[in-house]
Amino acid sequence: FSFLRPDKHNKMRGMMTFNIDDGYLEGLLRGYRAGLLTTADYANLTQCENLEDMKLHLAGTSYGDFLADETGQLLTATIAEKCTQKLVAEFRHLRVNAVKPLSTFLDYITYGYMIDNIMLLVTGTIHERDTSELLSKCHPLGFFDTMASLTAGGGSVSELYKSVIVDTPLAPYFRTCLSKEDLDEMRGSAELEKVRNTLFKAYLEDFYRYCTKELGGETGEVMGDLLEWEADRRAITITLNSMGTELSLDDREKLYPNFGRLYPETTYALAKIDKVDRANAMDGQSDMDPVKDLMTYHEAYAKLFAGVQDDPRNPQSTGGKTLEDMFFEYEVSLCKLAFEHQFQYGIFYAFVKLKEQEIRNIVWIAECIAQNERDKINDFVPIFQS
Questions:
Q1: How far apart, in whole angstroms, are the C-alpha atoms of residue 163 and residue 157?
Q2: Which of 186, 144, 181, 135 lies closest to 166, judged by CA?
Q3: How many CB atoms lie within 10 A of CB 2?
Q4: Taking a C-beta distance cutoff of 8 angstroms, is the pair 374, 55 a contact?
Q5: What does the pLDDT read at residue 183?
Q6: Residue 98 and residue 84: Cα distance in Å, rounded?
Q7: pLDDT in tens, 323-342
Q8: Which band of pLDDT confidence, cut at 50, 70 and 90, is reported for residue 180?
Q9: Are 14 and 360 in contact (CB under 8 A)?
């Protein structure tokens, strides 16, 4: 049936040909999705008296005996590490069995983690920390074959930059966004964060182009929605975090991805928002309010801001859901919708995001148990309910 295979110039496979190369992996992934913790699982976890009880309950889920080798005192960090290792093992199994274009799509998912890892190494090198120690703190999904070599070369930023350009798939983003001289001048955390956001902008724009232009079809539609949300989330977060900092308004606008529901009108307005003048502000007004006002033109995002009960910048805040909590809930809802579509790659991206949220939930519950903060133990984001 080789005549059914689309040639390399065609877009994404459709319903008639998708299962030729990708049907097995889609079925496998949907099996992984069925293993995500249910409402009953979370109810059992929140009733645990200690972390050993959590270990016992998790053994009855898809996590199985992933903590069987931990015989000493169980720590929250250990649970987080083992959960992440399980996600990485599942992802790598998918990747090693994938062929193009799915293999390329899965590689794109890892690029975001690579950027975080490389920026961690850059930060450590600039501050003259032992980069070999930093390797242990890097996310496993962001590892690549030559990553260990990044700690060689005397630990200089110059050698590190050369290694990134030569040995990693992130080279196009680095060449486009910054030079070795730019890195040499970076010293403060604000400057490094600017570099990180610049790289993420280039990455997201490239990933969006690949999904919507090269793949197209159902994948382009599903991933278009997911990546547009990620672009908008970053635009809002950059705006809120840069208020009252040294980052100029012009430089802030350059960090916004050039796509998304907020682009271009709302992102242009976001770039002009400055820190609220406390002397002339109305009672209870916070830095978030000007951003919230702009979201009235975007119903879905307006609901997120309306649900915020805790604004750390507002001294009158009474506690409750933060904007970050609302963002996580919205991302979960989008990722769940991705599984309603067939014959597309968006479910692979969505699964990784949902699994990361599940790990955050488990770690949150474990921390509450370890620190005896029972009143906050249910403040997690449920995923699939049963």
A1: 10
A2: 144
A3: 5
A4: no
A5: 66
A6: 21
A7: 999 999 999 999 999 999 99
A8: low
A9: no
Give the whole-angstrom CA distance, residue 365 versus residue 368. 5
| pLDDT, tens digit (0-9, with 9 covering 90-100), for 275-305 | 765 445 555 567 788 999 999 999 999 999 9
Task: Read off the pLDDT of each residue in 68-74 and give the average, rounded to a whole number.
Answer: 85
Selection from 207, 211, 130 nearest residue 169 by Cα: 207
In terms of Cα–Cα distance, which of 215, 262, 16 is closest to 104? 215
Find, among 50, 49, 81, the residue nearest to 63 by Cα. 81
Q: Contacts for 305-313 with beta carbons within 8 Å, 24 or more apart?
A: 311/286, 313/286, 313/287, 313/288
Cis amide bond preceding 169, omega within 30: no
Residue 238: which region, alpha, beta or left (left: phi > 0; alpha: psi -120 to 50)?
A: alpha
Q: What contacts 250, CB < 8 A, 6 or more positions away?
A: 271
- Name the burial class of residue 61, with classes exposed (0-12), middle (13-18) and buried (19+) by CB atoms within 10 angstroms of its CB: middle
| 98 token code pair | 């994938």
Which alpha helices (H) appear in the chain, and where do they start and end? 18-21, 23-34, 39-46, 51-58, 76-96, 102-126, 131-135, 157-167, 171-177, 180-185, 189-209, 217-242, 249-254, 265-270, 288-294, 299-306, 323-338, 346-370
Q: What is the pTM of this model?
A: 0.91
CA-CA distance, 353 to 367, in Å (whole number)?
21
Are the beta carbons of 150 and 163 closer than 8 angstroms?
yes
The C-alpha atoms of residue 55 and residue 52 are separated, in whole angstroms, by 5
Distance of CA 51 to the CA centre of its chain: 27
pLDDT for 157 equals 67
